[in-house]
Amino acid sequence: MQAILKGSFLSSRSTHIVTGIRLCLILISHLLDLGKHFPEKWLYNDVLISLFVHPTYSLTQIREAQSIQNLVNGRFADAYKASQIIHIPPLMLAPMQSFLGFGLSELLLALCLLLIDFMMAYMIEAVGCQILLRESTQFAEDEERSQSQLPEAIKPPNGNAFPTTRESRALFPTDTLPILAANLYYWSPISAISGGVFCCFQNIPAFFFLASLNEFVKSNRSCTLTAFYLATASYIQPHYCVILVPFILWLSARQYATSTNNKAIMITAFGFSSASMQWLSYRLVGPCYGNVLEASYGCGWNTISPNLSVQWFRDYFSTIILGLPYILVVPLTIRLHNYPMVLVAVFSLLWTVFAPIQTLFDVNFGICFFLFCPKSLARMDKIAFFALCCIPVPLLLNVVDQWMWLEANTGNANYVFFQCLAHNVFLCIIVAQFCSASLQRDKALRLAWKEQDNQSPTTQTVS
User: Fold this and answer.
1) Which of 61, 120, 305, 416 is the most exposed place for a label (fewest CB within 10 A)?
2) Which residues, including other chains, have CB under 8 Å from residue 54's CB and lie 6 or more apart?
3) CB 194 within 8 A of CB 117
4) pTM flag (> 0.85)
5) Which of 147, 429, 434, 89 is nearest to 292 (CA)?
6) What is the residue-wise DSSP string for 327-362?
């Protein structure tokens, strides 16, 4: 394990091997007629597509928009007249429609998505190296020094697996976590199948989110560029706007003389970039802009087919569940304001649990950020590990139950819903355990500081 995780992502031999394998997968799936070699609907069946593909960010959505546009007047805005079908934002639909005009468009798109995945893995490693190995705030330094002074009763139970200091020896040392997170994303068959086989471009908003995080953690950061990247990600998937909260907390923790100015610049640049994108969308679609907003960001996704989320099952789930991630932002920020990276990790996976459309890509991408919080992982209970190991069970049963319901006609939607519910319960356990471990980490640190304060006067008196 240590030999595999040595070096950087770009120079690692394993990266080159995995890239070659993913290239072969793309060429085989797009240049060969797999229907002649596999049973009918073995690969491109609705069940597998629902696990790997976000329907809004698929070529099917783009082709449907083109068909609607051609059937009416041929104008771009006419694609949104069927508001219950087209959900992709206009500024993303326009370039993707142009992309389909090229020959071998699916092959070219798959290769572009592979390049995006490669860049994302590189940025994941860069972010991890900056946060775990170079980033330093006064609070982080105080926490680092206090780890060795913690009483035995409140020391992390999993300290032998995840490091509590940069120099501590553990199963996964601090310097290996960045490349481990990058490999967790890039090596995953989920990322390879989603973009390489099904040409799902759901990694594009994640790419812009990572670009904003990578730009922000640099020593010579640009707050304006960070805000632009984050605004672009939020334009495509609105929940990324909550990441602005950890960014503001990060700026405050660094205690720069220009911290207030940087926060004002970032908030202003984010608002201006978001407003500019909405204005461009209005210019593209014209008077039907209100319908476009409802289809892209409202409840138009209620008509989406079954997926790993539970909101497709009943309409009232959308009303109850949709707002929960945003309601939890304030209490989590109040309790964990000293740990911005923990908030980034929690917000990423929390939205995955309550999202109206959920795929395995979202789960895999969200878990990568947990590795940037080793002090919290060191305090997680074993039940989180068991929940992670149990996730494949409802996934496999979901495949079987959807086949029984839609193909063999021997089941019903309740079978599928139960497996989706079990899958999301396991994810909730992981998120809850991570939050609980982060709170325990904060409480243990404050107890250690309180003990030091109580001992300081005694030491001075004796001396």
Assistant:
1) 305
2) 200, 202, 357, 359, 361
3) no
4) yes
5) 89
6) HTHHHHHHHSTT-HHHHHHHHHHHHHHH-SS--HHH
